[in-house]
Amino acid sequence: MSRERSRALYDRALDVLAGGVNSSVRATKPYPFFVKRGDGAHVIDADGNKYLDYVMGYGPLLLGHTLPDRVVAAIQSQVSDGTMYGAPTEVEVELAEFIVRHVPSVEMLRFVNSGTEATVSAMRLARGITGRDKVVIMQGSYHGAQEGTLVDGDPDGAEPSSPGIPDSFAEHTIPVPFNDEEAITAVFEDQGEDIAAVLTEPILGNHGIVHPIDGYHQTLRSLTDEYGALLVFDEVITGFRVGGLQGAQGVFDVEPDLTTFGKVIGGGFPIGAIGGKTEYVEQFTPSGDVFQSGTFSGHPVTMTAGLETLRYAAEENVYEHVEELGTMLREGLADLVADRAPSYTVAGRDSMFKIIFTRRGGPQSEGCAGGCRQDEACDRYEYCPKNGADVDAAATDRWERLFWQEMLDEGVFLTANQFESQFVSAAHTQADIEETLEAYKAVL
Ligand SMILES: *Cc1c(COP(=O)(O)O)cnc(C)c1O
């Protein structure tokens, strides 16, 4: 497989783009392939190589690369009417109404331009509402490239995980292990009066895919209620992906106070949103005092792409399709690892999947087949990663240096590290899943 053109493009890129890329995860070794175009479930690179794609833009592309005609027509029609105006449009009301209708806890929204912007604004809102500074986050969770959550540490102290962030930012962030009810209860007993919010992904989606144990989110809900803090679900990755139109909060039957969205709701264009109860979201300016604004926010082209994508997904059984293929893939992977690498863990649900290269573990069991769900009745329960540290302890180098490269040579494009989720899209077929399982079989 020649990648000469990609190599030459990366050579040029290294002169003018930091690290040759615009988002750090894209700088795969030894050099990334450059995409020429997408086609359904595939991407074709600058040298004409074709890969079956499970990265799907790192999450936004629920429908794959070839948008349905009606979605393309709506986007084109909006572009010919002008791209943006700096004044409100009907389509942003319609997208907001669609989301409010389907996500149980959301009554009102503010649209922004990225998931990062959504979590930044949600934290500002939670702090503004409560008049408190501290925010509890989960170790191994990802909330975008924002100062307040780029921290390492534990409840006894956190420090910035990147240069350029003042220690004073990290002072207000309390990282706890996901799925550890004792740890977060102790944090609230100790500092509950100072905590503005608990910010968590309902499923860790950027760190191996870690499912909550039974009752964990209910514990977060009751602790935040008891201490007057807000519960904020970061559904940037799970929103309109896990649990179909209701999001992961519907699956786990927990109503957060605020929810952040991004990725899928933009239909392939940049987006973020903060949603929640009216009494809270109304605190944003101009109805409230918590400042929030953006030149591109509610961008008509994005709103159109998002609305038409979600309508299509709702009307054309997209969630049933991706769930069916996702289950077929996870079950096939569980069979393969049972045979070849029984210590590995198959994770995911709905359209999300990953094999975590866990080093410890008994034999696979029935309970593992559809992806680890932290089912206490399952024989492997104690080996299923429960938090970020458990995923970090997996064979992450093997994934990145051996496995990922070889899968690419087999024509399957997976996320380049052990941590990021992978996605089945509406464009994938049963034949694609079979081909993928053959590739895993050859490489694992
Ligand atoms: C991707 C992601 C973000 C960041 O979104 P961007 O659009 O990349 O800024 C935040 N939170 C979660 C859970 C994400 O998956």
Number of structural domains: 2
Our estimate of the beta-strand percent is 15-25%
Unique bound compounds: pyridoxal-5'-phosphate
Overall radius of gyration: 21 Å
Fourth-tier CATH superfamily name of the largest domain: Type I PLP-dependent aspartate aminotransferase-like (Major domain)
User: How would you sum up the major sheet?
Assistant: 7 strands, mixed
> Low-confidence stretches at least 5 residues in length (pLDDT < 50)?
none
**Which architecture name of the largest domain does CATH use?**
3-Layer(aba) Sandwich
Structural class: alpha/beta
Order of helices and strands: HEEEHHEHEEEHEHEHEHEEHHHEEHHEEH
Measured distance between first and last alpha carbons: 20 Å
- Specify the helix fraction band: 25-40%
**Overall geometric form:** globular
Side-by-side strand order of the widest sheet: 4-12-11-10-9-5-8
- Annotation, overall tally of beta strands: 16
Number of helices: 14
Q: Mean pLDDT, nearest integer?
A: 96
Q: What fold name goes in the CATH topology slot of the largest domain?
A: Aspartate Aminotransferase, domain 2
